[in-house]
Amino acid sequence: MTKRQPNSSHCFVCGVSNPFGLHLKFYNVSPGEIASDTVVPEQYQGYPGVVHGGIVASMLDELAGRAHMAGAEPHFMYTARLNVKYRKNVPVGRPIHLVGKAGSSSSRAHNATSAIYDENGVLLAEADALLIDVPAGKLDGVDLSQLGWRVYSDEELAQLGIS
Fold first, then answer.
1. What whole-number distance in Å separates Cα of residue 80 and Cα of residue 161?
2. DSSP assignment of 20-66, as one string?
């Protein structure tokens, strides 16, 4: 994996300071494609050994949106539609590989897909998303650094207990 994308402070999926969050790190692997590798802890299970479906949907949603964020300036969008297909149980405590891919774009709307695979490359869950640009001016005056939006070094993440 190549260049790491920024994290934020309190996002449930990527927030480095969210004590309840997943603390995922995302990497640009090619134009319009991102990836993340993780092991989901037991506290996010729906029933023993299986990641809760809402957590799976949260990871797929974040992957889809971030697939369009490979540029120098952040491209913030909100999800208008997320269609999730749960193929197999996503396990807790086991390595999983997450992939997001940017699809077509129009002036304000963007499509993306995302998927979760097990350690052997078996597809566990997938989604397609329709994403809409945050309206122009909505983030004017917002200091993204105050939200913790930046790329954290490995040393900073280790100090926060994130591997």
1. 33
2. TS-----EEEETTEEEEEEE--GGGEEETTEE-HHHHHHHHHHHHHH
Segment-wise mean pLDDT, segments of 10 residues, the chain, 163 residues: 86 94 94 95 96 98 91 82 98 98 93 98 98 88 86 92 86
49: left (phi over 0), alpha (psi -120 to 50) or beta: left
> Would you say 97 and 70 are in contact if contact means Cβ atoms under 8 Å apart?
no
Measured CA distances, 151 to 28, 80, 106, 156 (Å):
12, 27, 28, 10
Supply the Cα-derived Rg of the chain in whole angstroms: 15
pTM (global) more than 0.85: yes
In CATH, what number does 3-156 get? 3.10.129.10
Residue 150: DSSP 8-state: B
